[in-house]
Write a structure and sequence with these properties.
The structure is a homodimer.
Chain A (H helix, E strand, L loop, with lengths): L7 H5 L9 H8 L5 E2 L11 H8 L12 H10 L7 E4 L1 H13 L6 E5 L4 H9 L3 E5 L8 H11 L3 E5 L11 H7 L8 E5 L21 E6 L12 E4 L2 H7 L10 H12 L1 H24 L3 E2 L6 E5 L4 H13 L2 E2 L11 E5 L3 H20 L1
Parallel strand pairs in A: 1-11, 3-4, 3-5, 5-6, 6-7
Antiparallel strand pairs in A: 2-8, 7-8, 9-10, 10-12
Helix pairs in contact in A: 3-10, 4-10, 5-6, 12-13
């Protein structure tokens, strides 16, 4: 071991990562997956217009560091101004910048739900903050528990995904807005709306972008089908959004991805088609679950979480059985949500492969 | 102004950015540039194999968070192991992670050359470090001045680009290795070799990747012609490289970019063709400079820095005259290097546009 003079914080950070990618699992298994249903990607892919735009963007040129055209289009889409919008390398990247802007040590408190999106927790740890967790309530993230804990610990940030990952549950935007009456002054709500495009009408939080209480995160990775492109954005008060420019990597954005996202946003007809296909796929996953004696949970996202009816150890055996049979899926990792497995929407062929593998996985799991 | 509880450091950071992009300048000018010769991009573009790979990568899937295939190919290319290689969203992104790993406040000292790559300085400021600058020596970054200052201030990091940007000068790898005898123990040399692919044989630092004294940065943005893709990598000791995984955005990499870089690396014949075209373009830029009474500096990079023969104010007027005539170029920003303008290599058409604009720009500059 050489003696690199890392920061005191860097020395204490673990080498663990939020997610092991399917490619790593394929290398360990020694074969490719038959169906890729674990990362909540969108197999139906982006708009043809986006694919064309990405091909024609000119790979030799740097992307616009201001993402001006894309930011302007996003602003118009949300009836606001570009100063209310920051574009980044996925919501993951934006969460990292946001945490960096607010959190610089253990004195800075943050609240999330136990079992919610782990990449947010990774960033909080990475900047030395103190993370407080509240439980889910009936498989929903609980605004009241979250905001009460935020008040108790004087949290700078509180994270909430709506719809939620990994459970697929959601709150109406109106209910969430009402619950925000209990959000402490000076606590910023980090509202991850990655899955809002597949949720029922009325799920998006109905606030003005000038509301300083909340920053909303969106992505082109889910309904827009461009996970590989790495384009996310945040909407919020200009003082908050403007602060990102002080710390972000100004040349982080892939130029083709900027052009693709711009074209994807303009093709709302395609988005409607794809969300219809996602709806149908959710129904089919639910049918498969029920036909095999399992209980699908209602989903507002591009995946269905299936209650396997026993404990976390059982669900883990079901998951392992699916993975060993070539079906990439993931599962919640905190009890009692970990009684479930989580199946991303897929093509008819993907879901047929899932259905073919499920009986064997269940039989193996029951043997234990 | 709302009262966001940013960190003490974030509150003090300026809103300035390292570079204003050409798209912003075009918006201000109200018209597109005729020639884009300011960002040291490579207009000859990537290998056709890379373009195909990017089109076929599957935009709906996340990139491999480990960049395993690309890292393995890079390791093989450099005769080392994947544990010695980290891939990131451009050298800019990797510099940000590196600074974050070492610098957490004003007690942490860093050394660079005054007028060298500003994005490194941006990251040092962004993590609160203390930046010390030494002057250039005869238009070269000076290893002896840099390392002496590093010893004086007990620097954690010292930054050196070889070849240098913005001057295009270089040291032989052997000379640099010899100079490293004066590098203080526990100071890590951050060696930016972004432009090494267009430099004379023998410019790359001849060290084993296990040498803990240095981390070398490379990119697909310059000779490989993929600036828009945002793919850089660093080579170094596994303990140093491994630390990046504790803080980096594991899902930052564009999937198509990963595939494109892999294909580009495999097409070394194309790289040779392109570097020959870059060489020819350098010669043409030098000829144009001389034909107009200016002095081109020798260049090991994909640009030529031209001594305008007077002071920084004069060179700035030449630059402004070129920009107003539709030619995007940049210039050094510290005296005495700012007597120059910097012209990226371009196509014959680009350089003809530059040559057509130059007399008017010079005439305007002489009027003052």
């Amino acid at each position: 071991m050489t003696d690199f003079r890392f920061t005191p914080l860097a020395k204490t950070l673990p080498a663990t990562v939020p997610f092991v990618g399917p490619e790593t699992q394929e290398r360990l298994l020694g074969q490719p997956f038959k169906a890729r249903l674990g990362a909540n990607e969108n197999v139906f892919g982006p708009s043809p217009a986006a694919i064309t735009a990405m091909a024609e963007a000119g790979h030799w040129m740097y992307g616009d560091p201001e993402s001006h055209a894309l930011r302007s289009a996003i602003a118009a889409h949300h009836d606001t101004t570009p100063d209310h919008v920051v574009v980044g390398e996925g919501i993951d990247g934006l969460l990292g910048y946001l945490v960096r802007l607010f959190i610089s040590g253990a004195q800075d408190n943050v609240v999330t739900s136990d079992g919610a999106y782990p990449t947010f927790n990774y960033h909080v740890a990475g900047f030395g903050g103190t993370l407080h967790k509240v439980p889910y309530a009936d498989d929903h993230e609980s605004p009241s528990l979250l905001f009460a804990k935020a008040a108790e610990v004087d949290a700078k940030l509180v994270y909430l995904a709506n719809p939620d990952n990994p459970m697929g549950s959601h709150h109406s935007g109106a209910d969430l807005l009402a619950a925000m009456d209990a959000l402490p002054a000076q606590t910023v709500l980090v509202l991850d709306e990655a899955y809002v495009d597949t949720a029922p009408e009325g799920t998006a939080l109905p606030v003005t972008p000038d509301d300083p209480r909340v920053i909303r995160m969106r992505t082109f990775s889910k309904a827009y089908g461009m996970a590989g492109a790495r384009v996310g954005y945040a909407i919020g008060h200009p003082d908050l959004i403007g602060s990102f420019h002080k710390v972000r990597n100004h040349f982080s954005m892939n130029r083709a991805a900027q052009a693709g996202a711009l074209a994807a946003l303009a093709d709302q007809a395609y988005l409607s088609e794809v969300t219809a296909r996602i709806n149908a796929s959710r129904d089919e996953i639910a049918r498969i679950a029920r036909d095999h004696g399992l209980s699908p949970l209602p989903s507002a996202a591009n995946f269905v979480t299936i209650d396997c009816g026993q404990d976390g150890a059982f669900a883990k055996r079901v998951l392992d059985g699916l993975v060993s049979r070539g079906i990439f899926v993931r599962m919640p990792f905190v009890a009692p949500q970990n009684r479930c497995i989580r199946i991303s929407c897929g093509t008819a062929q993907d879901l047929a492969a899932f259905e073919a593998a499920l009986p064997g996985a269940l039989a193996d799991a029951r043997v234990g």
